[in-house]
Amino acid sequence: MSGTTLVTTPAVRVSPGGGFWLTAYAFAIMMAFSAAPTPLYVIYQQRDGFGPFMVTAIFAVYAVGVVLSVFGGGHVSDWLGRRRVLIWALSISIASGLLFFLPGLAALLAGRFLSGIGVGLLTSTATAFLMELHLADRPAADRRRADLVATAANIGGIGLGPLLAGLLAEFVPYPLVVPFVVFEILLVIALLGVLAAPETVTRRHLPWRPQRVSVPAGDRGRYVAACLTAFASFAIFGLFTSLAPGFLVGVLGERSHAVAGLVTFSVFAAGVAGQLAMLRLSLQGALSAGFAALAVGLSALIAGIWLPAFAAFLAGGLLTGVGAGAAFKGAVATTLTLAEPHARGEALAGLFLIGYLGLALPVLGLGLAAQRWDPRAAVLLFAAGLTLLLVAAVRPLFRTSGAR
């Protein structure tokens, strides 16, 4: 595998290897910041007097920002430069963080929307940047290190954000201020690190166009099944970054912000573990394990809420995290197998579009249902809907003949 040509500037002070780790840090911190409000929503509800539906609306605004950004600018680093777009993403996140210091629901909504815009610019840009810096640093190596670090920074970063914010909210004063002061400092450090990284793309002047989306023509049934799997996987992660802390307080009686952050961190850490386990299994084996973990995890989650029992709730979260991570990785692998080489990016764009809709729509419906009905019944309906989606996806996806 050939290396990557660097486009250096006099300001660059680090090697490709150093740039790789600085970019990984920036990726992880931005994803952590994107999920930092999770254990704080209960405090916002008390301060501003809104219910579970508004929590999910705030989360949906973030998802809308991500979707708009992915399809408006997630691909422009191909010709404007990885470092340049990553600097934009970090700057937007820093601006988003400033909005959290302002009182009121409007500032919270605006901050979450801007955070989504930054993440939409970040994910594909940072993933490609890590790959290119890895190849420049180790021209003879395969891409495994870059894949593993990108996965850990992405999903692991989302888990670290609530953990850090929850600990700060629990043990230091001003729980709606101090976490964002800390994240602003971490984001500024990340921005300085990326400024020192070498560029890997020669800037070209091309007319802007939105990200194209295409459906593989070879087996559309499997592609639709992969999209349903992505939708369900993102819905699980959306639940634990929006309403789960409210269930901990209102249903399970657990009022610790640190515990709320730790639960969310554990689910996303399990998601990373599920994706890493995918590396050791065939595609069909990993999908089987992922679906099984999701089925058992959703059952345990429902039991934990209905009993109520915190241990069962946590076990359900861990199992659904493992299952969602493995199932989503399988959905991506299936899409890459089906798509023609020249259209892989467009096919993945469609998969991520459906995935991000799964991040917003199910939890939005769950929040509305929880406001009108018993929250336990709302979660039962949520789990039943996801189970039906997964059942619909099983047979088409398992026609992959065990391909890797």
Automatic annotation (TrEMBL):
Major facilitator superfamily (MFS) profile domain location: 12-404
UniProt key word Thylakoid: no
UniProt xrefs under InterPro entries: MFS, MFS_dom, MFS_trans_sf, MFS_Transporters
TM segment ranges: 20-44, 50-73, 85-107, 113-136, 148-168, 180-202, 223-252, 258-279, 286-307, 313-336, 348-371, 377-398
UniProt-annotated location(s): Cell membrane
Example of a GO MF term: transmembrane transporter activity
Membrane topology per record: Multi-pass membrane protein
Keywords attached to this entry: Cell membrane, Membrane, Transmembrane, Transmembrane helix, Transport
Protein name as it appears in the record: MFS family permease
UniProt lineage: Bacteria, Bacillati, Actinomycetota, Actinomycetes, Micromonosporales
